[in-house]
Amino acid sequence: MKLSTITMILSLCLVSTTFAYDYVIEDGDNFEDLSLINYETLLMTGGEGHHLNLSNWSEATIQNTAPLVDENHGGIWYIGLATYSHLDFSGGEVHQLDLSSYATATLRGGLIEVITGTQMVAPDPHIEIICGNWSWDEPTNILIGTWADYSTFDIQLDDWPPYDPIIENIKFTIVPEPFSFLLFAAGATLITPRGRLELA
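The chain above was modelled as a monomer; its predicted structure follows.
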C-alpha cells in the first residue's frame, strides 16, 4: 500500500472521530455557558468557556483550554457533573470541578484549582486520578502531586458534609516513571526461574 493511501485512511479516521462529537471546541472558541444532556458529547482541544454542565449520560473530553485568567476570561470557570455523566480531563485549566449523584471523572493532567462534590463513595470512588505521585495535607485539605507528564498539581478539596470527603472519593492510579520502569524490567531479567540472581 502506498504511503499516500495510508495517510488518506488515517486522515479519514481522524475526521470521522471529530465528527462523532456533538460539540467540538477549538482554539479561539468560547462556548460561554453550555449544558450537555442525555448522551451528548463534547471534545475540547482549546478555547474557553464559563460554565459547562453535564447531566444524564453525557460525556466531555477536555484535552486543552486557553489559560485561565479569571471568572470571565480563559479556561473554564466551572464544570458541573450530575447523574451518570463523565468527564475525561487530560489538559487545560479549570477553576472548579463539581460532582454530584453518580457522575464520574478521570483526571490525568492540566490545572484544576478546586474539586467539590456531594457524593457517597459506596460502592466505588467516582474520581480517578492518574498520576506519578501524590500526597494529601489533611489540615488544609489540599492534594498535591505530579501528573504522569511530570507537571504538578495543587488542588483544593472542598468537602460538603454529610457527603463523603473528596479524598475518600478518589482512586489513585500511579504511573511509574519511565526510568523506574526500565530499572524494574532490567532487574526482572537478572532473576532466574529459581529466583536467584545471575551476575555472570
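Residues 3-19 form the longest helix (17 residues).
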